[in-house]
Amino acid sequence: MDVFPLMQEGGVENLYFCQDRPSGLKAVIAIHNTALGPALGGTRFWNYSREEEVIRDAVRLARGMSYKSSVAGLNLGGGKGVIWGDPQNDKSQTLFNVYGRFIERLGGTYITAEDVGTTPQDMDWIAQETRWVLGTSSKGGDPSPYTARGVYQGIKAALEFVDGTPELKDKCIAIQGTGSVGSHLCRMLAREGAQLILCDLDDKACGLLCEETGASQVSPETIHAQECDVFAPCALGGVINENTIQELRCRIIAGGANNILASERHGDMLEEMGIVYVPDYVSNAGGVIFVAEQLHGLDRDRVAAKVDEIRQTCYNILSKAQSENIPTYRAADAIAEERMNKNREL
Description:
- Strand 11, helix 8 (264-273) and strand 12 form a beta-alpha-beta unit.
- The chain has helices at residues 3-10, 51-71, 93-105, 120-127, 144-163, 180-191, 203-213, 264-273, 280-283, 286-293, 300-308, 310-324, 328-345; strands at 14-20, 25-33, 39-40, 43-46, 77-84, 110-111, 172-176, 195-199, 216-217, 230-233, 252-253, 276-277.
- 52% of the residues are buried.
- The chain has two domains: 3-64 and 77-127, Rossmann fold; 144-340, Rossmann fold, CATH 3.40.50.
- The radius of gyration is 19 Å and the shape is globular.
- It has 13 helices and twelve strands.
- Helix 2 crosses helix 13, helix 3 (93-105) crosses helix 4 and helix 5 crosses helix 6.
- The strands form two sheets. Strands 1, 2, 3, 4, 5 and 6 form a six-stranded mixed sheet that branches. Strands 9-8-7-10-11-12 form a six-stranded parallel sheet, sandwiched between helices.
- By secondary structure, the protein is of the alpha/beta class.
């Protein structure tokens, strides 16, 4: 693949390749934009099928982190680390120690944290080799409750925008993925009387959550096609694509996954279909807000208040899109880019 055109297309400043044969480490670190500050973004551990997918995902996710931090009002840029491997079988303390040494060499340009496939324990091992890591067991731990809280606020904002009220009682919400973020979101919505439809690759864990919350369970292959008020993807990205978009039967899309749209074209199509899309990097910013707070001394009340502001931010973006007759993802991008460009000029 041609790396420089990919970097230019994604607006990435730096792309670092890391490998260590004894530990089995194969990783890519992408730094997208540092106009607002050092690049913050978690490290993902995933078993990609091809090398090209690793690089593309790192670039795509790093860009999303820049926009997420910008819209959230954080003085941070965006980056992402991606480790290529099976998170169930390939992890080791040595591997994360080696990865931590690579991060240390970047001198604070990139700050990592937990992401899909990694845990606070993994961050502890990275922290043995570098101070540029957050989300360790001694620095706040799991950010997923705050990510879920932001998605919850994004859903309420979209319902208020569409229906004139944020009331969740008896609203049908289909949630794809009941892992860390999805499970917290399920419980929050169930407490307010929402009717939930769930799916996850871990069939047993999803079934237990259904018993707890009174939700119904469907297969991962059909979750996107359920008739519902809100479809909330909380697993991996690219859920709205050529194969799924014509099968959607929802009024709103608002989830915790990064890069829900396979491409911008699908955002345009949702606009034409009359489906309200809450840009994922806006509604799922609760996690990065929580992690960024650890740079200044963790105050959980302050974090919660900041995360709850996501509701108004989402509502403002939906209103901007409506008034300017543009897709919602373009409205969100414009706000993020304005702040980054202003700081770059300074």
